[in-house]
Each structure stands twice: as structure tokens, then as C-alpha cells.
Design brief:
binds pyridoxal-5'-phosphate, alpha/beta, 39% helix, 2 domains, 13 helices, single chain, seven-stranded mixed beta sheet, Aspartate Aminotransferase, domain 2, two-stranded parallel sheet, 11 strands
């Protein structure tokens, strides 16, 4: 993951050179791996919106996880569909057959496998079949992860969608892709435009700028510099990344994504955020900051995050109580520290773990 880049890796990301054939190689790899037609997109949300357009009619209801990021909601809206939130279990942060029972009218279901926790796929497939739902798999958190029955995420749905965004299981700072695994109902147009130069440059320099900010955390200047970089648009917060159905990722992102996808296959594990449900989050956060940890927000501080977009969602808090609860109690360890550097953080968190989590 880019967030873990060492100094050398930052430089190799910054100066990595892509060519047109990198698009072709990534497309071919994805088509083979996920057994369908692969299309590269600007980011995960654009890929998701396009995939939804391929299989659903405007106005169709689509079930989404009640604990997710705004990008998913935005994609559903842009595709002209109606998001139907399903509450989650506090155990794995996913909906399940019990919470899904509360839902009636929908034509599709997006499987998210939150933070790399796979759903009980057999049960979900059964539910989808009984209610005639088309399955779309969102692999932003779970590329390479296996379901309990041994099948790999992305091999079940009508389509699979990948994000190559910051902190996702494939992370080249931005980019995305979809694989249409069954015949589309509506012909969609694959994006052909190149990324905007400003987006391209931001994606190139983010690992370097991020590393500089983290370096400065030790003299308490990292946060201030990062806020400044956001203000002058040298750094874009992930949630602000624009949805655009006509653009591709950068060529160098295609090259890096392919490299990561190939090594994913080897290691068989997806690094994602380590999370805990805790009491007194504010107190714990203060303690962690005092000990030199830099937190740039966590997944997810609201049932649909980030907080500044939450109001737009009109989230059904009454019917998704577990999602509200988890959003108030979750903490993720930053992904840019080594396992060893995180040991003291775990010790700080331990006394605050919610009872059933201990
Ligand atoms: C981030 C994210 C996306 C979208 O990815 P972008 O590349 O940021 O558009 C989709 N689904 C989930 C669950 C995500 O966390």
C-alpha cells in the first residue's frame, strides 16, 4: 500500500513511467483473473457507477452496507438508483441474512466485505436468489480475500469493481476498474479520456508529500502542513475525488496496479486497516496523539463517511442502529506505521476495548 511506502518506494512511485501498453496489460490481467470484460476507470466510484448503469434500470433499489464510505452512495446516486441501507453486525461490520430480512424492494445488492472481512457468501447468495437480486462485488477493501467457502472475492457477482485509491487493498493513490462478468443489460461506454493533469500530478506526488508530513509529526508540524497542502489543492482528500465516467486512470497507475495485483496473488493476503471497537474514543485518541501517532481520520467515523458528507445521505439511523453504534466506537490503527511501531498503540487501546471485544 502506498501509505506504507518507504523513502525509496516514494521516489519510485513519483518517477514511475507508464506506457499505453500498461493499460492493455492491466485490462488483460483483470479480464483473465475475474473472467469477464475489464474496463479501467478514474477511480472506484466511477467504476461502480458505470457497472451499476450496465445492469440496472433508473429508479431500481440497490442494497448497500449500512457502514460504508460516501463514494458508494455517490456512485449509486449517479447511476440513477435508490440506495437501500442494510444494518451491520458489530462482529464483522457487514450486513447478514438477519439484517437483510428487514428489506423488501430492491433489484440488486452490493457486497463490500468491510475492511477485508468477508461475508457469509453462501447465505448472501441464497438471499439474493430468493429475492431475485443481481450481485455486484465491491473489492475496494477485499481484493484477493477469500470467502469462507474458499472462493475469491470478485468471482461471484455479475460485476466486480476495484478501487486503486488511497488505503484500498490495491493502492496507487487513485484509479479503478470494473469487470463485467455477465452480459450487460445496457451498453456502457468505456472511458477513453486521459486524467486531468492536476489529478495526475496529485497522484504522483502524494506519497512523497505524505511522507514529509509524517516526518514532521515528530516536531508537531505534520498536521498543519497536511492541512495547508489540502487547502492549496496539492493534496486531495479521498472523499473529494471527483466521479467521472469518461476518464481513465494514469498510465503509471495502471502499471503499479498490475504489479500490486500480481503480488497480491502471491501473498494471498490483503493488508487493510486493523480496527477495534472501544469506549471513550476521544480519550484514547488524545493518548495516542500524545505518544506521537498521527491520525488522519478513520473508517468510518459516521455510518456513511466522511462526516462532512453525512448530512447529504439522510441515513436511516433508526433502522441501522448497529452501524451508528460502530461509527461511534471504532478506531483504526494508521496504516503507515510498521507492525512494531504499532505495539505501544495497541497497549494504549487495550484497556478501553468494549467488553465483548476483550
Ligand atoms: C473507497 C471506496 C470505494 C471507492 O473508491 P474510490 O477509488 O475512492 O472512488 C468504493 N467502495 C468502498 C467500500 C470504498 O471504501
Amino acid at each position: 500500500m502506498a501509505a506504507n511506502y518507504s523513502g525509496g518506494e516514494c521516489l519510485s512511485h513519483t518517477f514511475s513511467w507508464g506506457r499505453k501498453k500498461d493499460y492493455e496489460e492491466l485490462t488483460d490481467f483483470l479480464a483473465k483473473k475475474y473472467e469477464g470484460e475489464a474496463i479501467l476507470c478514474k477511480n472506484g466510484r466511477s467504476a461502480l457507477a458505470l457497472a451499476l448503469k450496465a445492469y440496472f434500470e433508473p429508479g431500481d433499489g440497490i442494497i448497500i452496507n449500512g457502514f460504508t464510505c460516501y463514494a458508494v452512495f455517490e456512485a449509486v446516486k449517479v447511476a440513477g438508483l435508490v440506495p437501500v441501507f442494510a444494518d451491520i453486525s458489530t462482529k464483522d461490520l457487514n450486513y447478514n441474512n438477519e439484517t437483510l430480512e428487514a428489506i423488501s424492494a430492491a433489484k440488486g445488492i452490493i457486497i463490500q466485505n468491510t475492511l477485508g472481512n468477508p461475508v457469509d457468501i453462501k447465505a448472501i447468495e441464497k438471499f439474493a436468489k430468493a429475492h431475485n437480486l443481481t450481485i455486484i462485488e465491491d473489492l475496494a477493501h477485499c481484493a484477493g480475500v477469500k470467502y469462507p467457502d474458499g472462493r475469491e472475492c470478485g468471482m461471484i457477482g455479475a460485476a466486480a469493481v476495484l478501487s486503486f485509491g488511497k488505503d484500498k487493498s490495491i493502492d496507487t493513490i487513485s484509479g479503478g476498474a470494473m469487470i463485467l462478468r455477465t452480459p450487460q443489460k445496457h451498453e456502457i461506454k468505456a472511458p477513453t479520456d486521459l486524467p486531468k493533469l492536476s489529478d495526475h500530478l496529485r497522484a504522483r506526488f502524494y506519497p512523497l508529500l505524505g511522507a514529509i508530513c509524517r516526518g514532521l509529526t515528530y516536531i508537531h508540524l505534520g498536521g498543519a502542513l497536511m492541512r495547508l497542502l489540502v487547502k492549496i489543492h496539492w493534496v486531495e482528500r479521498s472523499a473529494d475525488n471527483k466521479l467521472d465516467l469518461n476518464r481513465r486512470p494514469s498510465k503509471f497507475e495502471a502499471k503499479l496496479a498490475l504489479r500490486q495485483l500480481k503480488s497480491l496473488k502471491k501473498s494471498g493476503e490483503t493488508p487493510l486497516r486493523e480496527y477495534y471497537l472501544i469506549e471513550d474514543r476521544e480519550v484514547v485518541l488524545k493518548k495516542l496523539m500524545k505518544n506521537g501517532y498521527y491520525f488522519a481520520g478513520f473508517w468510518y467515523e459516521k455510518p456513511v463517511s466522511p462526516e462532512r458528507y453525512y448530512k447529504k445521505v439522510h441515513f436511516p439511523e433508526e433502522t441501522c442502529k448497529n452501524a451508528v453504534f460502530v461509527a461511534e466506537h471504532i478506531i483504526n490503527l494508521p496504516t503507515y506505521y510498521s507492525k512494531k511501531d504499532l505495539e505501544p498503540a495497541r497497549e494504549i487501546i487495550k484497556p478501553f476495548l468494549l467488553k465483548e471485544e476483550k
